[in-house]
Design brief:
Layout (H helix, E strand, L loop, with lengths): L2 H7 L5 H15 L2 H16 L2 H4 L11 E3 L5 E3 H5 L4 E5 L6 H12 L1 H6 L3 E6 L3 H11 L4 E4 L4 H6 L2 E3 L5 H7 L2 H5 L5 E3 L3 E4 L5 E5 L10 H9 L3
Parallel strand pairs: 3-4, 4-5
Antiparallel strand pairs: 1-2, 3-8, 6-7, 8-9
């Protein structure tokens, strides 16, 4: 059993510690120059001010009607008018940090729904790719396709990949095959809690893709709305 699998299967292990362990393992797998390039990209994204310019607590959430791989349409405002909503973006199934977060949130799904909220996961990857991600991670949650990052742009969480890391995403990860377009852009791995008035009551925004909202914190934010 791999170290990552052991971490995934331990319900007592926080997501942050799993993410940290994965990042530490990456330092053993990749050359220092590659790691430096990735960190430089993170620093560039942070320097853009996106964490401050994106939608924040107190702002009105942007609405949209999106489809999942089953082609069923979901209008976000119709969902949050009845129950608080957790909106969570993940970058793609190619991202190990995203997969960790998805599995961690799956474990909290009963707690989320028990608190009266609905988890809606958003991704720029194509529906068929998102379905593969769900099947690989044994997910049972609502995943919607944010085509061309249109909703993410309304939330202000989309950034252009820094030129230094474009070749990695374009040539090695082949981002275009996952997203169905040639745009070298991604959303932050943001998490929002939205109340029944459509107001944002919790926001996790971090330019570092290795950092994610802790599921327990998200559940706590939902419970505050009860």
């Amino acid at each position: 059993m791999s170290t990552q699998t052991q971490a995934d299967e331990s319900s007592d292990t926080s997501l942050s510690s799993q993410l940290k362990e994965t990042a530490e393992n990456a330092t053993k797998r990749y050359p220092a120059e590659v790691l430096k390039t990735f960190q430089g990209g993170v620093d560039q994204v942070r320097a853009s001010g996106i964490e401050e310019s994106a939608k924040q607590v107190g702002d009105s959430a942007a609405d949209a009607t999106l489809k999942g791989w089953d082609e069923n349409e979901v209008t976000l405002s119709e969902v949050w008018s009845e129950n608080p909503v957790i909106l969570m973006w993940y970058r793609g199934g190619w991202c190990p940090y995203c997969n960790l977060q998805l599995r961690a949130m799956q474990k909290q799904l009963s707690a989320i729904e028990g608190a009266g909220a609905k988890l809606i996961v958003l991704t720029p990857e194509l529906p068929e790719k998102a379905k593969e991600t769900a099947e690989t991670n044994d997910l049972d949650m609502l995943v919607l396709h944010d085509s061309n990052n249109e909703l993410a742009k309304k939330f202000g969480i989309v950034f252009d990949l820094p030129e230094s890391i474009v070749p990695i995403y374009r040539d090695k990860l082949q981002l275009a095959k996952f997203n169905g377009n040639d745009a070298m852009e991604l959303p932050l791995a943001a998490t929002y809690v939205i109340n029944t008035d459509g107001k944002i009551t919790y926001a996790f925004l971090d330019a570092d893709y290795k950092k994610r909202a802790e599921p327990a914190d998200v559940v706590a934010a939902v419970k505050k709305l009860q």
